[in-house]
Automatic annotation (TrEMBL):
Residues 10-239 form the ABC transporter domain. InterPro entries: AAA+_ATPase, ABC_transporter-like_ATP-bd, ABC_transporter-like_CS, ABC_transporter_ATP-binding, P-loop_NTPase. The keyword Transport applies. Keywords: ATP-binding, Nodulation, Nucleotide-binding, Transport. SUPFAM superfamilies: P-loop containing nucleoside triphosphate hydrolases. GO terms for molecular function: ATP binding; ATP hydrolysis activity. Belongs to the ABC transporter superfamily. Pfam families: ABC_tran (PF00005). This is ABC transporter ATP-binding protein. It comes from Lysobacter daejeonensis GH1-9. Signal peptide: none annotated.
Amino acid sequence: MTEADAQVVIRTRGLTKRFGDLVAVDAVDLDVPRGHVYGFLGPNGSGKSTTIRMLCGLLTPSAGNVRVLGLDIPREAEALRLRIGYMTQRFSLFEDLTVHENLEFMATVQGLSRHDARRRIDELLQQYHFQDRSRQLAGTMSGGQKQRLALACSVVHRPELLFLDEPTSAVDPESRRDFWEKLFELADAGTTLLVSTHYMDEAERCHRLAILDRGVLVADGTPATLTAALEARVLRVDADQPRRAQQVVVGVPGVVSAAQIGNTVRVLLAGAAVGEGAARVRDALHGEGVRANVTSTEPNLEDVFVASTQRGPAREVA
């Protein structure tokens, strides 16, 4: 193994999963660097969860090669189990057990000795701010507290690699921020994290992103690299009638999407239409009697997401 290979904790080539005639994951090539927070972004049904389950060894690929932490998956999935953590959106805490008892149970499942488990649980109770809640039943906690406990249970054995499948979809914004602080503490300590999410603000936090659409890897890179690729393709339309402006702009040739944001309309242009796109938008608005100012604006990750997953005609985004 070369030094470069040692810095890649997940490598897939041609990773494919079929369920009958449905191709859920289609020939995906991934390289996840060690110590990174790697984001997985995609619409519902894009294959994110299926991919994660194959990487964990929980699903057998239909085709392709997978190496995780230097192990051949799924052949060496049992050896991998003790080196990874896995937290899902519906992580099952035992609600009739206390915080301490949930941690004890997971420590036992992960094979920690009684002495090591006691020390590790004490650390986690302090790290995750459960010192005064260790005897509280998990079922009586808030959604954010349950997610924090779920994360603590997932890392009780100090995994080298942590998979998180939409872990914050059911918690409030403040709890999400706190949760992400914990994720970066893990990354700073050397843990590699692969996180699937629907939230653009979470995607922006990741060191690197992969975007899946209908099982196909359609984008892969740092947030800065992905947004830079859309330079000059995003317009801002300031209009007296923003709703009317959106309805007009969405029908302009070369427009991929038009989203009303407050009193402005954000317009994404197709690559081939960059040169003439702004002029076409201005002409269309003028022709419909809509007074508007059209200017170029900086792209963001939502633009990247729309550009990567849009395969049909232009759409009006609410």
